[in-house]
Amino acid sequence: xxxxxxxxxxxxxxxxxxxxxxxxxxxxxxxxxxxxxxxxxxxxxxxxxxxxxxxxxxxxxxxxxxxxxxxxxxxxxxxxxxxxxxxxxxxxxxxxxxxxxxxxxxxxxxxxxxxxxxxxxxxxxxxxxxxxxxxxxxxxxxxxxxxxxxxxxxxxxxxxxxxxxxxxxxxxxxxxxxxxxxxxxxxxxxxxxxxxxxxxxxxxxxxxxxxxxxxxxxxxxxxxxx
Length: 226
Ligand SMILES: [Zn+2]
Hints:
binds zinc ion, alpha/beta, nucleotide metabolism, zinc, Ado/ade_deaminase, five-stranded mixed sheet, single chain, Metal_Hydrolase, TIM Barrel, hydrolase
């Protein structure tokens, strides 16, 4: 699938050896919505199967399927409602992970949610200082989706992105895609946003990017963890 947008621009700005470095980097995707990550080829296949009426053309069916999937993704995702806050992940017990999308509207609700001691937060876009301090103090991993944040305008620019605060604190983060289909991105391109020089990227060093990749591996929910 062709990628586009800020992440694609960042990737296109890299030298071949930088791309090779990112390709070989060990990293984990920890935040991707299933209905927004379906490859186009699979959607086309679903579209073919959707043809169940003599009056439907193949093109109509594919279009209807794509529209349905995109609508579903938007409706289920906070950017669909423009109330992006976070996804909330907490380990209940082995192999039983709860990941919910919650949109609290007050700082009190946010602190209440954080008191449940989640293991990871998705986006965490609208945390105030007290909430962010709590996240850092409790070592809660934050799943960062840069391209998604920029395209959905929950963050106006990389310069003001909350990732900078977490990097300053050397806090646990995981770089993720969110939805590769509507956001036309890839994990490689998301990491390119770290490595590319400003204004296209954050201009981090390869060692710093390597450290972020290692963080994502540490933040995985694994079968043996408790
Ligand atoms: Zn998300």
